[in-house]
Amino acid sequence: MTQPLEGILETALYAADLDAAEAFFGGILGLEKVSRQGNRHLFYRCGPGMLLIFNPAETAKPVPAGALAVPSHGASGPGHVCFRVRGAEMERIIERLEAAGVPLESDVCWPNGARSIYFRDPAGNSLECAEPRLWNLE
Amino acid sequence: MTQPLEGILETALYAADLDAAEAFFGGILGLEKVSRQGNRHLFYRCGPGMLLIFNPAETAKPVPAGALAVPSHGASGPGHVCFRVRGAEMERIIERLEAAGVPLESDVCWPNGARSIYFRDPAGNSLECAEPRLWNLE
């Protein structure tokens, strides 16, 4: 049976403070914002997919009558996302984080030689930048 | 400034019951398992990225001394992931879910004509399958 799920189109993180999230993901990481809806969500394009940042206090509410029937969701506690970054670009990310005063929490060399760096967004989510060869995905 | 973040390499969901998660993501959705570590995590390949399912009771623990310094994380409550699916494949997914007794929670036609279906994994995460034109990502 072939695989009808071609890949991941949307990856979600949760953050209560969307202003802080926007300063971080747009301002520091430089992601391309697609839209923001008040204090509910902030959507970014990231390569062939989307990074969606939701305020769980809003998205956990039941869907209002008459709206599109998008099911509720909303997590708390630190989530995790890893961005795909190629070797030489890793230093550019590190420079941006340093310039913005965002500490690197960890810098890991995996057994297969791939490198990962870890840092936190303002909501405390664990973010990683890794070379795709970490997963043999080039 | 160009964008050094090429895309998302790892997307995470959280589930306390990894046996149930494995039956669902491997058995019903047919994702390709890369590895499982006991009751800690379950890793799947999904197209050009990875879907990582973590038991937050394990991943929220501090890193043991001597291990690779991978920062802790772990969320609770329903998260969200959307899979990229092309038109005709949507019906195959729906058939699989029906055959497995997984109810569709919602079937949405967005204003731009793209279709999304929604359902839950055993942990209660909100999963979606959507056509990439939802985000003008073809």
Would you kindly provide a brief summary of this structure?
The first copy, chain A, is α/β, with parallel strands linked by helices. The first copy, chain A, has three helices and eight strands; from the N terminus they run βαβββαβαβββ.
Kindly list the characteristics that best describe this protein.
homodimer; about 140 residues; alpha/beta; 2,3-Dihydroxybiphenyl 1,2-Dioxygenase, domain 1; four-stranded mixed β-sheet; about 20% helix
Rg estimate of chain A, integer Å? 16 Å
Characterize the quaternary organization of these chains: homodimer
- Name of the CATH first level of chain A: Alpha Beta
Mean pLDDT of chain A: 95
Biggest sheet overview of chain A: 4 strands, mixed
Structural class of chain A: alpha/beta
Q: How far from one another are the termini of chain A?
A: 24 Å
- Strands in their spatial order, largest beta sheet of chain A: 1-4-3-2
| Name given to the CATH homologous superfamily of chain A | 2,3-Dihydroxybiphenyl 1,2-Dioxygenase, domain 1
Binned, the helix content of chain A reads: 10-25%
**Rough shape of chain A?**
globular
Number of beta-strand segments of chain A: 8
> In the residues of chain A, how many domains can be counted?
1
- How many helical stretches of chain A? 3
CATH architecture assignment of chain A: Roll
Which chains make the largest contact? A-B, 67 and 67 residues
